[in-house]
Amino acid sequence: MPTEYGQDPPLSYNKYLKVRELIELQETLSDPASHDELLFIVIHQTYELWFKQILHELDATIKWINEDRVFRANHSLRGVVSIERILVTQIHILESMAPIGFLEFRDKLNPASGFQSMQFRELEFASGAKDEKILSTFSDDQFASERLSKRFGEPSLADAFWGLISRQGLAAESFDERVKATVEILTHPEKYAEIYNMQDLLIEHDELIVSWRYNHIQMVERMLGMKRGTGGSDGVGYLMTTLSKKFFPELWEARTHLRIDQ
Ligand code: HEM
């Protein structure tokens, strides 16, 4: 009886990675297929795969931090920021699409939008930016709603980090205490070596997501100008408001208070 990958075949690259299934997952809505729709689908699916890997590392990081395994947690965080550096630049590939080519199939996407990316919202929630309003927009999607509700109720990376700081003997309950604790760590890098490295990786995670948002906005404006989004927002205007989202505002605020003579 032939199996999907031949007559009882040994393990192969294609079999292990399910390449056949993978390359069948790009179903265009335009018919006949508009040339650029394949790129549009491939890039979104690629992002979703990387989001999956980032979530895997963030979950592990939270676990390691809770076990006070700071070195191990930093290792996973380094993996997260390495992926994010790629995600920030990857968005530019879409700019190779002619705006008129995008318009050929754009109307077919209505009312779907990146706004509904479950895994991007999981990344935000897991990092520390939880938003009940965003959670409620998934009420029609049971699968996404369940995953997001679970993350909404679980301690985030930010919660885990500030818990770790408290266990180091630094007060970290209120915003001001967290800023003060960060100033202390930034003032004495060698005394807090691994924790110092961690805050550096966390602020980089924050910075890279903002960089991604910014590059996405530029790309959207280049494609659409000020047209409304397929998700129903006013497009670029809405996206600009998301630039101020931060997972670790205290780490940023601390830089303002840092002085050489502390
Ligand atoms: C031509 C390509 C793209 C266009 C024109 C576009 C346009 C937009 C627009 C207008 C919004 C605002 C919501 C709306 O009203 O729809 C949005 C949100 C979003 N898009 Fe894209 N997008 C594109 C590609 C991508 C890609 C490749 C990703 C990768 C995952 C992505 C992820 C997101 C996310 C996560 C949001 C929500 C941002 C937030 O609310 O903070 N988009 N997009």
Overall description:
The protein is mainly α. The protein has a single domain (30-109, 121-257), classed as Methane Monooxygenase Hydroxylase, Chain G, domain 1. It is 64% helix and 0% strand. The chain contains 13 helices and no strands. α3 (37-66) packs parallel to α9 (157-167). The radius of gyration is 21 Å and the shape is globular. The mean pLDDT is 96. Protoporphyrin IX containing FE binds at residues 43-44, 47, 94, 102, 113-115, 117, 120, 216, 220, 223-224, 229-233, 235, 238-239, 242.
CATH class identity? Mainly Alpha
Helix/strand/pairing class, anyone?
mainly alpha
Named once each, the bound ligands are: protoporphyrin IX containing FE
Strand content: under 5%
Helix content: 55-70%
What is the CATH architecture descriptor? Up-down Bundle
Ends apart, CA distance between termini: 75 Å
- Which spans of ≥5 residues are poorly predicted at pLDDT below 50? none
Number of domains: 1
The SSE order reads HHHHHHHHHHHHH
The total count of helices amounts to 13
Secondary-structure blueprint:
Elements (H helix, E strand, L loop, with lengths): L12 H4 L2 H4 L14 H30 L3 H21 L8 H11 L8 H10 L4 H5 L5 H12 L3 H11 L7 H13 L5 H32 L11 H6 L7 H9 L5
Helix pairs in contact: 3-4, 3-6, 3-9, 4-11, 6-8, 10-13
The structure holds protoporphyrin IX containing FE.
